[in-house]
Specification:
The complex is a heterodimer. Chain A is α+β, with helices and mostly antiparallel strands. In chain A, about 45% of the residues lie in helices and about 25% in strands. Chain A has five domains: about 1-200, Up-down Bundle (Four Helix Bundle (Hemerythrin (Met), subunit A)); about 205-260; about 265-445, Histidine kinase-like ATPase, C-terminal domain (Heat Shock Protein 90), CATH 3.30.565; about 450-595, CheA-289, Domain 4 (OB fold (Dihydrolipoamide Acetyltransferase, E2P), Beta Barrel); about 610-760, Beta Barrel (OB fold (Dihydrolipoamide Acetyltransferase, E2P)). In chain A, the strands form six sheets. Chain A has a six-stranded mixed sheet. In chain A, a hairpin with a 5-residue loop joins β17 (about 565-570) and β18. In chain A, α3 (about 60-75) packs parallel to α5 (about 115-125). Chain A is globular. By secondary structure, chain B is mainly β. Chain B has a single domain (about 5-140), classed as OB fold (Dihydrolipoamide Acetyltransferase, E2P) (Beta Barrel), CATH 2.40.50. Helices cover about 10% and strands about 45% of the residues of chain B. In chain B, β1 and β2 form a beta hairpin. Classes of the chains: A alpha+beta, B mainly beta. The interface of A and B includes residues 222, 557, 559, 564 and 575 of A.
Chain lengths: ~750, ~150
């Protein structure tokens, strides 16, 4: 009984694998109907399934595969041309076979099915469809028929390997027909017949077994860490040597076991040619699929986790991305669209890209859709950048498909893709060029079981932060520690390179009781800059310890329900440390709330100055203008600050220029342009010119200013709009009234001015 | 026909409790724990049990009893549950006892408070009463401060 079960199980596993290949082969065949090699391969696969199912007395399965085999024999022998109808029928047959196998797997029986119509279709296709078929093959047909029959019979009485042998006469007969079989096919066939030989070097292992093994190795790694820690404090050289060897061996073992769990991504990609074909046929498109990096390996659990998101992306690309042939032709593209899958290793992660050469994202459509669904306000919509609009597709309930097809457009797509990918510590990103297509790029960790993490301490407890979310570490000491942290209406922030970084105190989030005697006004502040949902935030911890490879252990359900922890791990000293769930923590601290908030905040930051009137913190460059005047330039338009010796100024076309980085850079004297009443006496007496370099469209212009004073970051309001050209208005900066320069305006004025002067001359 | 069941017994304050011995994985002395912020106080922390991470539930808190003095370290009774192993923190470990089904009674109606849900029944032993703990109920960490943190 159990023997039988084992044989059936093996048959199932083998058949599933064969069917996957069949899907690929059939699609390949459609592309290249003349490939006898592909045909031979398909024929063998079906033949094997038929033989074994006969042997195991799965009669329905045998009958169906027999009908398929007969049809394939005709195709292989060149007696029938391949048509789309035949391909479809064969694919339907593959599906039916798969269904039966599933039923056998579940219940041990084939299940009650009616495949008569399918068998009838397959048999009907066998017949020459019209009278215009060549008459020559007739006799061959007659010859080919009976052996095929006997082949089917033999399956019921003979074992699988015999079936292959018995099959030879059949093939030999058909070879008498005019079509010649290349030697290569025959050789391949022999190899296939000996396919059993492959099992000598590989064995199938239950995944559960591997999981247990992996767990044990994880524990061994922890034990090793502990032992190494103990022995490091010992003088005993023998013990030290032994522990070092243990160390090495454990690492090798860990790598070895992890490798056994690795699978090439090609395993899931192999289903895509079929998926693409089905979807493309379903929506009347022509799509070719190309793959690169099939052999890129990932942990099995990760492969499982990305299977559905990836399938969704592929279907999406065909359904939404690639246009119908006539649309493509009108756009001057080849009617056949290209779907390109690419996988490669980079920096300890695997990158997977799904690229299509379709229409790309329609930003206006996205914007309108978001408006229509009230996901954003009209004001926000008007100000969103393309990148922000692209991110809209990841919002729940967002779909731009005009009509809901059975493939996609149900609004359960991209947000689920993103959630699933982020769940395993990956990221998703979309890039799109209108008219040229889009690329979805995923970055996925190699494995989930062992991850690099940053260990921090807060309120006496250690926590692990997965390195994937880590951007950088900032440590403020002394004065900085006291002054660096500022409040925006009570919310702490830090200016990180001119941008405000929201801060979260881990202590507060974890509601840690502050141990007695702990001084909160610490001498230093440790900020762990993290990224959650593309939004950076700073996590303030008491201490930053180290980075370590940690073994992730799951938490019990009760602890999992609190979104703050992603798991737990055991540290070198044997104690347990919690792994922080960065996304959960960010949500808890309301760093990530709604995408729309984020978009608006960023915009406001960027454009506070140009919009004028907005009360925002901005960094400005202050310079002296005349003897008393002060002016400011928005720091974000400043490319560089330079100082040129006075004699390096040359004259070209009546303009002052300097040689700068291999280019000729025109100089604009701010005081001249503004026709300031203030005499620029300072300027004349100096030996060098202080220049603010402004770069626009790859061209640099140097603004000569009297003296650069300072760079300050302040919140100010542009109060008085100026009538003067080149000046945006005035504001109170550092308690002094300061004119704010409108650099592009100023340069425009300078150019007019010069042309006017030139005209006069 | 008398059927008997074996119990792993332990004390909380001066009360005598037991859990079926088949469900007990092991009994170990006090282990250092890692606090888990934001969870109900019933969960005292996580223990490293030879590489397995086990949640420790303080039965005193679960039963609404006052905390044991800090000088007294609890013992761990590690039980198997559907959601992995869980450790119960108890004051002291008693013997493994055999109790007769005939001596079993459901808890009296007068049993009030948290114990009401947690005590499966009472065995009348010769010299004392043994309360059988409902393991599934005891592992639900919702008692203590109910709204500990739902934010």
């Amino acid at each position: 009984m159990s023997d039988d079960a084992a044989i059936v199980k093996e048959f199932l596993v083998e058949s599933y694998e064969n069917l996957d290949r069949l899907d690929q082969d059939l699609v390949a065949l459609e592309k290249d109907p003349g490939s006898r090699e592909t045909l031979a391969s398909i024929f063998r696969t079906i033949h094997t399934i038929k033989g074994t199912s006969g042997f195991l007395a799965f009669n329905q399965l045998e009958a169906l595969t027999h009908a398929g085999e007969s049809l394939l024999a005709r195709l292989r022998d060149g007696l029938l041309p391949l048509s789309a109808e035949i391909t479809t029928a064969l694919l339907v047959m593959v599906d039916a076979v798969r269904e039966m196998l599933r039923s056998i797997e579940a219940s041990g029986k084939e299940g009650h099915r009616d495949d008569q119509s399918l068998i009838a279709t397959l048999t009907r296709l066998l017949e020459p469809q019209s009278a215009n078929r060549p008459t020559e093959p007739q006799p061959a047909e007659a010859l080919a028929q009976p052996p095929a029959q006997s082949g089917g019979m033999s399956g019921t009485v003979a074992a699988e390997q015999d079936a292959d042998d018995l099959h030879h006469p059949d093939e030999a007969l058909s070879e008498k027909t005019p079509v010649k079989t290349p030697e290569a096919v025959d050789a391949a066939h022999v190899q296939q017949a000996r396919g059993a030989g492959a099992s000598d070097s590989t064995i199938r292992v239950d995944v559960g077994q591997l999981d247990r093994l992996m767990n044990r190795v994880g524990e061994l790694v922890l034990l090793r860490n502990q032992i190494v820690q103990y022995t490091n404090s010992t003088e005993d050289s023998e013990l030290l040597g032994t522990s070092q060897r243990l160390n090495l061996l454990t690492t090798e073992l860990q790598e070895g076991v992890m490798k056994t769990r690795m699978q090439p991504i090609g395993n899931i990609w192999s289903k895509f040619p079929r998926t693409v074909r089905d979807v493309a046929v379903g929506c009347g498109k022509l799509v070719r699929i190309e793959m690169e990096g099939k052999e890129t390996e990932l942990d099995k659990t990760i492969i499982e986790a990305i299977k559905d998101p990836l399938t969704h992306l592929v279907r999406n690309a065909v359904d939404h991305g690639i246009e119908a042939p006539e649309v493509r032709r009108a756009a001057g593209k080849p009617p056949e669209g290209l779907l390109f899958l690419r996988a490669f290793h980079e920096g300890g992660q695997v990158n997977i890209e799904v690229t299509d050469d379709g229409a790309g994202l329609d930003y206006d459509k996205l914007r309108n859709k978001a408006l229509q669904k009230a996901l954003i306000t009209a004001d926000q919509a008007a100000r969103m950048t393309e990148r922000e609009i692209t991110n809209l597709i990841f919002l729940p309930g967002f779909s731009t498909a005009e009509k809901v097809s059975n493939v996609s457009g149900r609004g359960v797509g991209m947000d689920v893709v993103r959630t699933n990918i982020e769940k395993i510590g990956g990221t998703v990103d979309v890039q799109s060029k209108p008219g040229q297509g889009s690329t979805v790029r995923m970055k996925i960790p190699l494995t989930l079981a062992i991850i690099p993490a940053l260990i921090v301490t807060t309120a006496g407890d250690r926590y692990a932060i997965p390195q994937v979310s880590l951007l950088e570490l900032v440590r403020l000491e002394g004065d900085q520690a006291r002054k660096g942290l500022e409040l925006v209406n009570g919310a702490p922030v830090y200016r990180l390179r001119g941008k405000l970084l929201p801060l979260v105190y881990l202590r507060q989030e974890l509601k840690a009781e502050i141990p007695a005697g702990d001084v909160l006004e610490a001498q230093s502040v440790n900020i762990v800059v993290l990224r959650a949902d593309d939004r950076p935030f700073g996590l303030i911890v008491d201490e930053i310890n180290d980075t370590e490879e940690i073994v992730v252990k799951p938490l019990s359900k009760q602890l999992k329900s609190i979104n703050t922890y992603a798991g737990a791990t055991i540290m070198g000293d044997g104690k347990v440390a919690l792994i922080l769930d960065v996304l959960g923590l960010a949500q808890r601290a309301s760093v990530v709330s709604e995408v729309r908030d984020r978009a608006v905040v960023e915009k406001d930051n960027k454009h506070a100055l140009s919009l004028g009137g907005a009360h925002q913190r901005s960094a400005v460059l202050l310079f002296q203008h005349g003897e008393e005047g002060r002016m400011a330039i928005d720091l974000s338009v400043v490319a560089r600050l330079e100082e040129f010796p006075r004699d390096s100024v040359e004259i070209a076309a009546d303009k002052e220029v300097v040689q700068y980085r291999g280019q000729i850079m025109p100089l604009v004297r701010v005081s001249d342009v503004l026709e300031s009443t203030q005499q620029n006496t300072l300027d004349k007496s100096q030996d060098s010119l202080q220049v603010v370099v402004y770069t626009h469209n790859g061209r640099s212009v140097g603004l000569v200013v009297d003296r650069i004073l300072d760079i300050v970051e302040e919140s100010f309001v542009v109060q008085r709009q100026s009538a003067r050209q080149g000046v945006m208005g005035s504001a109170v900066i550092q308690k002094r009234v300061t004119d704010i320069l409108d650099v592009p305006g100023l340069i425009a004025v300078a150019q007019c001015h010069e042309t006017a002067v030139a005209a006069q001359v | 026909m008398a059927t008997t069941q074996q119990f792993c017994t332990f004390f909380l304050e001066d009360q005598f409790f037991g859990v079926p011995v088949q469900q007990v994985q092991e009994v170990i002395r006090y282990q250092e724990m890692t606090r888990v912020p934001l969870v109900p106080p019933v969960i005292r922390g996580l223990i490293n049990l030879r590489g397995q991470i086990v949640m420790a539930i303080d039965l005193r808190r679960r039963l609404g009893m006052p905390d044991r003095p800090e000088s007294e370290l609890p013992m761990n009774v590690v039980v198997r549950t559907e959601d992995g192993a869980v450790s119960f923190l108890v004051d002291e470990i008693g013997d493994v006892l055999e109790a007769d089904e005939q001596n079993f009674e459901h808890p009296p109606e007068t049993l009030q408070g948290q114990a009401r849900d947690l005590v499966h029944g009472v065995y009348k032993l010769a010299d004392r009463l043994l309360m059988e703990l409902d393991i599934a109920q005891a592992t639900i960490a919702e008692e203590g401060n109910k709204g500990a943190d739902l934010a």
